[in-house]
Design goal:
By secondary structure, the protein is α/β, with parallel strands linked by helices. The protein folds into two domains: 39-229 and 267-335, P-loop containing nucleotide triphosphate hydrolases (Rossmann fold); 231-266, no CATH class. Helices cover 38% and strands 21% of the residues. It contains ten helices and 14 strands. An eight-stranded mixed β-sheet has the order 5-6-2-7-1-8-9-14, with helices on both faces. The chain has a two-stranded antiparallel sheet with strand order 3-4. A two-stranded antiparallel ribbon has the order 10-13. α2 crosses α10 (313-335) and α4 (145-157) runs parallel beside α5. Bound molecules: adenosine-5'-triphosphate (ATP) and magnesium ion. Residues 68-69, 92, 97 line the site of magnesium ion.
Length: 340
Amino acid sequence: MCMSDSPVSVHTPGNDAPSEAPAAPDPAAQKQMEQAYAQMKRKMAMAEIGKQIKHKIMVLSGKGGVGKSTVSTGLALALAQQGHKVGILDIDITGPNVPKMMGLDGRKLHVEGGRIHPAQGHLGVKVISMAFLLEDEDTPVVWRGPIKLGAIQQFIGDVEWGILDYLIIDFPPGTSDEPLTVAQSLPDIDGMVIVTTPQEVALLDSRKSITFASSLKVPVLGVVENMSGYTIQGKGTPGSEVEIAAPAGRTLRATCDDEGRFSLTLDIFKEGGGRSTAEEFGVPFLGALPFDPGFVRGGDDGVHRIVSEPEGASASAFSHVVASIQSQLDGASSSSLEII
Ligand SMILES: Nc1ncnc2c1ncn2[C@@H]1O[C@H](COP(=O)(O)OP(=O)(O)OP(=O)(O)O)[C@@H](O)[C@H]1O
Ligand SMILES: [Mg+2]
């Protein structure tokens, strides 16, 4: 991937006499100049991008598979449903799956005038992902550190997002080089959303993410507890009691209402750990998202749960998380108001 269209040529000092043939440029110096020029252009582009995108939100977790991409795409779609202009930057180079979740499987990037143009998924959400560069989704990408980080910088600097209200940045798991590179490259990141599941091992890793955020000097917008509980709904005789055998030898009971309906929530991966971790570290708890098999189906079919069931329980849980984030962003912008 090389987007450089550098017009730079090397001038050799002390060789200005018109009668002498110009010295051949030193190829190493020429290359260095071109790289420096491309880097400078990219930095300027990043600064420009910083101005065009109102809010930039990173989505991280210490542990893999806890639902970062599901949360990133869900946040983007919930914000787009409110009428905002939204983009997602999928930084996961080894396992980029945002395009699949956004119904953009198999798309290729469109490059015009040396700039990369995002694909548009559901509700007009703009998507940039390494997946768009892969020839074959079954072949893993093996990029060593500097190449990978260079590609990320290029992806930040060379993309033509246009004006956006929100850019959601989805990361691979862990506190690795990727978030560091993004935090250093993209100015004015509003903050980090940390995704966890309620079980202890995931919580341990999410604690590391909170500490990592402070080392990056990026504010923590809060913790989202994903796969928080699985709600079973059913019908029985009005007023009767139903019983369900839950894990760990527990029994869950509910009473059917006047119309015979009942609902029981099974805490598959325990419950409440996200909130307690947030409280422990003094960061906001943004909300809990239910365990919903519709997310898995939606991920495979390319139609996110929020799009397939906009009035459902998962969509409303996402709205709650979005509202918590927005109240903080609004608070941050009003607290940083300066009267001159
Ligand atoms: N709330 C949920 N209910 C049910 N399944 C979910 C939920 N959230 C995510 N999943 C499923 O869990 C799997 C992992 O989710 P996802 O890819 O979003 O995680 P991730 O943290 O981005 O993973 P990785 O670390 O590999 O990037 C997917 O199959 C997804 O559909
Ligand atoms: Mg992911």
